[in-house]
Write a structure and sequence with these properties.
This protein is an alpha/beta fold and 251 residues long. It is built from nine helices and seven strands, in the order βαβαβαβααβαβαβαα.
């Protein structure tokens, strides 16, 4: 993937059971990707995900990875990069939490923040340095439209994604000119198993739609991708809405 707009031949997924990540992996395998590492906590779900991707013709490895154990990130990712070039790292781990419960239990809120932000800072820096050392590659970071402005209904999750988003943009600036780029993906509400039972937000999307947007973003050399694209305009309006108005709208 020496050309920044080429699709990757090799892919490392941090968060190997993420439905969005797996939809993206399937799409990239159908195009060009031949080797995939799925990194996540060892589980039957991780092994099943690997088996499903192998059925599509890719060589797939599973890697034990824990976002909440940053001391292990350099070792874990270092072993992957030692196997050969990694064209793309997809940082896809994260948890939604449960706002109502998390507000009453700070330890639960901290777990959301540590997973979505602290763990991502650690893994992102390690991955960025490894990509820079090999002289090429792309780090794709799954952020969220919620990063643009916190809502009463999910401000713990939204604030963690806001931190991640700002970090990823800064990392992209730091890596500019090194042969490595960072692409930030901001989906709105994505219909997955983990969002079942939650109220549907306007402009809801699917893992497959996010995967399509990731591919197009890679081909275009984009730095930021909104899914769906109309969210960019909507969030621009909401970001600048007076707080008293936004408080009534964003419940």
């Amino acid at each position: 993937m020496k050309d920044a707009t080429e699709l990757p031949q090799s892919l490392l997924v941090l968060g190997g059971t993420s439905e969005i990540a797996l939809a993206t992996a399937r799409r990239l395998i159908a195009r060009r990707t031949r080797t995939v590492w799925l990194a996540g906590r060892p589980s039957l779900a991780l092994e099943n995900a690997a088996g499903n991707l192998r059925a599509l013709g890719a060589v797939v490895h599973t890697v034990a990875f824990d976002a909440l154990d940053p001391d292990s990130h350099e070792t874990v990712l270092g072993k992957v990069f030692a196997e050969g070039p990694v064209d793309m790292v997809l940082l896809a781990f994260g948890i939604l939490g449960d706002q109502a419960h998390d507000e009453r239990d700070p330890a639960r809120a901290v777990r959301v923040a540590q997973t979505n932000y602290t763990g991502a800072v650690s893994a992102g820096l390690v991955a960025g340095r490894a990509l820079q050392a090999q002289g090429h590659g792309c780090l794709v970071v799954l952020s969220a439209a919620a990063a643009e402005r916190a809502r009463r209904a999910d401000f713990i999750y939204g604030s963690s994604k806001a931190g991640l988003d700002a970090f990823a943009q800064g990392l992209g600036d730091a890596l500019h000119g090194t042969g490595v780029r960072v692409m930030v993906v901001r989906p709105g509400f994505v219909r997955t198993r983990r969002t079942d039972g939650r109220p549907r937000a306007p402009l809801a999307t699917t893992p497959e739609a996010v995967a399509t947007a990731v591919e197009l973003g890679l081909r275009r050399g984009a730095e930021t991708v909104w899914v769906p694209g109309a969210l960019r305009l909507l969030m621009s309006v909401l970001r600048h809405a007076p707080r008293a108005v936004y408080r009534r709208l964003a419940v």
